[in-house]
Amino acid sequence: xxxxxxxxxxxxxxxxxxxxxxxxxxxxxxxxxxxxxxxxxxxxxxxxxxxxxxxxxxxxxxxxxxxxxxxxxxxxxxxxxxxxxxxxxxxxxxxxxxxxxxxxxxxxxxxxxxxxxxxxxxxxxxxxxxxxxxxxxxxxxxxxxxxxxxxxxxxxxxxxxxxxxxxxxxxxxxxxxxxxxxxxxxxxxxxxxxxxxxxxxxxxxxxxxxxxxxxxxxxxxxxxxxxxxxxxxxxxxxxxxxxxxxxxxxxxxxxxxxxxxxxxxxxxxxxxxxxxxxxxxxxxxxxxxxxxxxxxxxxxxxxxxxxxxxxxxxxxxxxxxxxxxxxxxxx
Length: 331
Fold this sequence. Notes:
globular; alpha/beta; six-stranded mixed beta sheet; six-stranded parallel beta sheet; single chain; 41% helix; 331 residues
């Protein structure tokens, strides 16, 4: 493992002129927010920096992309000097961009998932951080110290705040720490419009999102004596609601809010034999452990995995796995 000071020193080297950031597919607020903040700072420092993507950005976090995101196309981005894996710990999380990443002279991982391993040239993985945005905040501080320049501004503050707010459930989840609040307070001091960020992210829902959420909750099933809930979002539901799959974000949290439910499971059908699983826990269950059993990962209270099977089969398997995990918790 490296220190942030070491990573900052590497990023400031004159020869490291082209830097690409690689957030995971289906970017959430932390993946895009932390990437946007670092990308903006690197551009301020005179680097050619971009966020390389392969899919569409969810509409409620699009405001974080101020021209930083480019689609995967090697003829456009060229060969990078530095490639940074953001908010994930493996190229499996951005398979369509993996070849570009592997062509970089230096590979770096900046992440806060406890299941990530230090497998790149330089690694900073802090499982105690509430969000990758917290790590990027500290990295920018190191870049300020090393460069002797003031780098933070209100827009960078918005990106960092969005990253932390989304991964802490607006500072409600158990991963929220004193540091999370202290960073938010520091961002307020530099003029960050934190209220405006929350309005854009949480109070900007399309009607299609509301319909999709309602349809998913309508087909929800409780099991394990009411301690777990599971719901599916199929392509037929997406079509019927005229929605996008990104609009399913938040359904797992909605189910977890039900009294007595400890674990919620959302199954999203991306293809005939591709189901993405999102799990949330309320207070004591370890869903990262469940996800790891299927090749996934994440946090103790929020994790996921991908299953290569029909959604009906995935529902059966996840119901059994969660039931078994909860039974063990009660022993």
